[in-house]
Design a protein that fits this description.
four-stranded antiparallel β-sheet, mainly beta, 1 helix, about 45% strand, 8 strands
Length: about 120
């Protein structure tokens, strides 16, 4: 009986064969999108999509909402509390407009100061 158990480890190794590297995970819907440039403004200002959150619309369609970061040289200013599902638009050389998004639905437009990153809800008369 002892002889059979002594051979068992060798049999297990011999039967395994082939490549022993673990399989690579497939890309999934949960993967994080890379930062992406969405607008430029005078003076070397760049507007980037950075963080993301996956969401689902009320009718079950998935989407990704993104945060905005303003970059100028080595300076990075995150726009707080504003996730958007659409690219922001440049209003002038110091302001951009971004539409708040929640559960894949566009909400109120916000004006964002390109120097401070401060968003202010846009009001229409």
């Amino acid at each position: 009986m002892r002889a059979a158990w002594a051979l068992a480890p060798g049999l297990l190794l011999a039967c395994g064969g082939g490549d022993r590297t673990p399989p690579k995970p497939a890309a999934s819907a949960d993967s994080v999108p890379a930062d992406s440039l969405v607008a430029t403004a005078p003076g070397g200002v760049q507007v980037w999509f950075t963080l993301s959150r996956h969401a689902t619309s009320p009718d079950g369609v998935p989407c990704v909402d993104r945060t905005i970061e303003i970059r100028r040289g080595d300076t990075r200013v995150k726009v707080p509390l504003l996730y958007t599902g659409t690219p922001p638009e440049l209003v002038n050389d110091s302001t951009l407009r971004a539409r708040l998004s929640n559960q894949c639905r566009p909400g109120d437009p916000y004006l964002v100061d390109l120097r401070t990153g401060r968003p202010v809800r846009e009001r229409h008369p």
